Amino acid sequence: xxxxRTLMTALAVTLTTFGTAHAQADLEALVEMAPYRGYLAxxxxxxxxxxxxxxxxxxxxxxxxxxxxxxxxxERELDPDVFGTPEMPRAFAGTPGINGVPPPARGIxxxxxxxxxxxxxxxxxxxxxxxxxLSIDAVDATAVDGANSDDRVSFQATWEDDAGNAYAVRCCxxxxxxxxxxxxxxxxxxxHVLHGSTRIGTALMPxxxxxxxxxxxxxxxxxxxxxxxxxxxxxxxxxxxxxxxYSLASDREVTPNRTHFHLMxxxxxxxxxxxxxxxxxxxxxxxxxNGMELPFWHVMFENLDVRATRGGGTAGR
Length: 317
Prior knowledge:
The protein is mostly beta strands. It has 4 helices and 16 strands.
């Protein structure tokens, strides 16, 4: 079977772009320039991080049946509101793809950035799958990053392809209580803005209001068998960031009065000691039309029941 790595996810692509030893050193310098380095250093050893102002938020999200949208490798159009211009680039530091996009990895035409030169999990290409279910029970109790957290998440998602294969992701016996290149707020965050120009999460996703998000270590399954563990799992309930034809929106195309849930198992693993992400494909077991294996999961759920409580009150969307 042909290797998944030839799909050239964002990190591998940029390593190719920076082919010489000098350029490799430049890439290492860009990774070290991830913008939250100082903030993360201040919180890394925090043993008793403060609680969330106003008390814990409990979140329950579910989907029982119906379909999902599964993202496929694709080029991502580069939004000038996020990435700037060739004369004044923005959002270039950090591990490529999961954080910023270095200028050599960007196409240019007519004095503007066009798209990331090769494919990543963030683009317009997708397929639909059925047999979906989603179950989330979470608590956001801790306000900031630290060595410990009172946040918690119980997560399970399943879906099926046309051949009847069942895929699943489970999380999180261990939350990412502190971030590698950007904060994780104890593992769970509610009512925040992420991605895009915030530089919290990949800049390849639009800047979006996030009602609930988590980062943790989980496991990936196919037909009931664990095929990868532990793997970084990121999930979030956000305002709607898909445009016409289910294209991935630019910041100006975000729909504030709709929501959907994103599941991401990226082709990266966190290296906490090095303070960066390392490329590692996910053995999903799903075969793409070109015969290669999908090296990540990026799955969107839209038929949701959402409940949240704080201080005895209840709200739903």
